[in-house]
Design a protein that fits this description.
Elements lengths: L2 H10 L25 H21 L1 H4 L4 H10 L8 H12 L25 E4 L4 E4 L2 H13 L3 E5 L4 H14 L4 H7 L13 E5 L15 H6 L6 E2 L15 E3 L2
Antiparallel strand pairs: 1-2, 3-4, 4-6, 5-6
Helix pairs in contact: 2-5, 2-7
The structure holds zinc ion.
């Protein structure tokens, strides 16, 4: 399908609008949305595959806190992955360093360099979740939430390294047929996620993917959560950052 046909179809089809992505996701295709070029699309597919392979090698947990240099080294050393090409790296660089205002994302930058390293001594793995939190305020807030909300609340996403956020961002762009703008309204670009410095997501045990939809707001856990005076939801309805409502995302300040 050529791009022009795709856009006109996307504009009129309810299946390609936000409704495809479950309750609460109201990020529709816009006429001025920016898509990957044909070459970028090829780079996206190849880089995404490599990131997925590296994740399999190092494990889901460690991938959450891995640095970009470590990813590159593993890819280069392991013939099952293969070295990232120049055009793949250029595309990832662009996604990291581009000003995302042009994609409709207006949040603040959290990570300066694509090579940002997360120090092991500053983080702690949270049992049974596969996720990590920063020691200090993030960990303290999470423990307070567990105590105040009860045993059914759980960490669903903690610290995200640059490669982790990049991998999620590429997945989203891929699932949206190369629409970078629409992806940026659903997930923060890699240099702009607060998961890399403090924030985390919580959900109700056993809900799976529904924790990342407005369904979460119907749970007793969410109702208890919003009553806590030390908790803020970062991406509220119609937030200035241009991101969809994320009732599961806890702001740590
Ligand atoms: Zn989040």
């Amino acid at each position: 399908m050529n791009r022009r046909n795709f856009i006109s179809l996307a504009t009129f089809s309810p299946f390609l609008g936000g409704k495809l992505f479950g309750e609460g996701f109201s990020s529709d295709v816009g006429l001025s949305d920016i898509y990957t070029t044909k070459d970028e699309w090829s780079s996206l597919i190849l880089a995404r595959e490599k990131l997925t392979k590296v994740k399999k090698i190092v494990g889901y947990g460690h991938f959450n806190v891995i640095s970009f240099d470590e990813v590159l080294k593993i890819a280069k050393d392991d013939p099952k992955v293969g070295e990232f090409s120049k055009s793949e790296l250029e595309f990832l660089d662009k996604l990291f360093y581009d000003n995302p205002n042009k994609y409709g994302f207006y949040g603040t930058q959290t990570t300066e360099k694509i090579t940002q390293v997360i120090e092991e001594k500053e983080i702690i793995k949270i049992n049974y979740t596969g996720h990590y939190l920063f020691r200090g305020k993030s960990l303290d807030d999470y423990n307070r939430i567990l105590k105040d909300v009860g045993k059914d609340i759980i960490l669903t996403s903690g610290i995200r390294s640059v490669p982790k956020q990049m991998s999620l961002y590429l997945d989203k762009i891929y699932s949206l047929n190369g629409n970078i703008s629409q992806a940026s309204r659903i997930i923060a670009p890699p240099a702009y996620t607060h998961h890399s410095i403090s924030d985390f997501d919580v959900g109700k045990k056993g809900l799976g993917g529904r924790n990342f939809s407005t369904f979460f707001t119907t749970t007793q856990e969410f109702k208890s959560l919003v009553l806590l005076d030390y908790i803020k939801i970062r991406y509220t309805e119609n937030n200035k950052d241009g991101v969809i409502y994320e009732p599961w995302h806890i702001q740590v300040v």
